[in-house]
Amino acid sequence: MIKLPYYPGCTLKTSAKNFEISAIESAKILDIELIELPRWNCCGTVFSLTSDDLIHHIAPIRNLIRVQEMNGNGIVKDEHRLVTLCSMCYNTLKRANLRVKENPDDFKKINDLMYLEEDYNGNVEVIHFLELLKKTGFEKVKEKVKKPLKNLKIAPYYGCMLLRPKEVGIDDPEDPTIQAELLESLGAEVIDNPYKKVCCGSYQTVQDKYVVSELTYDILTHAQREGAFAITTSCPLCAFNLDNRQKEVKEKHQDFKQIPVFYFTQLMAIAFGLGEKYCSFDLNYINPRPLLIDKKLL
Amino acid sequence: MIKKIVISSENVKFLDKINELSGETVTLCDQCGVCSGSCPMISEMDITPSQMMRKVQLGQMDVMDSKAMWLCASCFACTVRCPRGLDLSKVAEALRQVKLRQAIDHIDIKKIPENEINRLPQIALISSFRKFTG
Ligand code: SF4
Ligand code: SF4
What is the 3-class SS of chain B, one letter each residue? Predict the structure, then answer.
């Protein structure tokens, strides 16, 4: 079992608990133990984009110091990778890390600002769980499949934060395939469509839910037109906009047919034969159970 | 008839400030429109992302009255495509920050309906507060 520091972020502890549990349990099947960072704090959810705003990079960098501490007190051994699941946390932590590594002045100032913390040494590497799976090998993933996702037509949705900007993207920003590779190894039929990388509206969901629900409508109906039965995502904000906002889509578009939205890890858990015990489908807005029962996966 | 665009020292000062805050050189934008063609929020915007860039180039401070800068979702679709290598998301953020640093919030947290507050995940609330409040 390899032990890796893992950063959950706020939403994975509440409304996206279904993402966290299914990921942790599926990782175990692949001999990966995700160990939660002690005393982690909210990363701030968005990477601050103005040149003079250093104070907002303290939150993400402080989390990276915790990885150092885990090495220092022997919780992990010489393991400087930090695994993330939430795409927004991934993006924010990775960009903050890059900013300090590329700007020695910022690096020094941030360490000075956190006077009583251990200095950050710049050695942590922020990675996304999907990258870890790719590195582990999708062949190995395939070997662990007990219930292939046969006849399940899935459209992977990537959104923005896994792909952009380029310096932190885990895949080709215009034509990502990493989720497709995973889903294929789980036995699913992958539905590709160009809306996989179109923004869901992100935080605009707070100021105008209908602006977002129109984007949701476009993204979901394009996938449906290509034949998808369900969508997968790795971001709790995308999940909210694509799943919960189907309520608003339905208000505006009577012809719209609702479609389940999974975290990709929930489908891993099903394919690995863990059943629904670790899927917490009660947290998904559109109930995915009827689809899984129909495909004899539950 | 010859029309002249007069750029005052006020305009130059504003352009300089946005360049400084964004870390971009906005005058490099050649108005190709790729950003506008990539933007998921364009149908809701009053001016397009490329118009936003043009207004900043000319130092027109009324760009900060636009809905567009608040509608930018920081999706970085324009960032990865701009042929001039410009990061428009940083320019939009700089514009928002100039407003927010006057303690003029874009959203009133108290006005978010209670049923929405209960439904929205933390990640949505925190990111919108980060983008829309100072
Ligand atoms: S894509 Fe770049 S160069 Fe083209 S209009 Fe937009 S900001 Fe200007
Ligand atoms: S970053 Fe903003 S302006 Fe650029 S494409 Fe996305 S929403 Fe539009």
Answer: CCCCCCCCHHHHHHHHHHHHHHCCCHHHCCCCCHHHHHCCCHHHCCCCHHHHHHHHHCCCHHHHHCCHHHHCCCCCHHHHHCCCCCCHHHHHHHHHHHHHCCCCCCCCHHHCCHHHHHHCCHHHHHHHHHHHCC
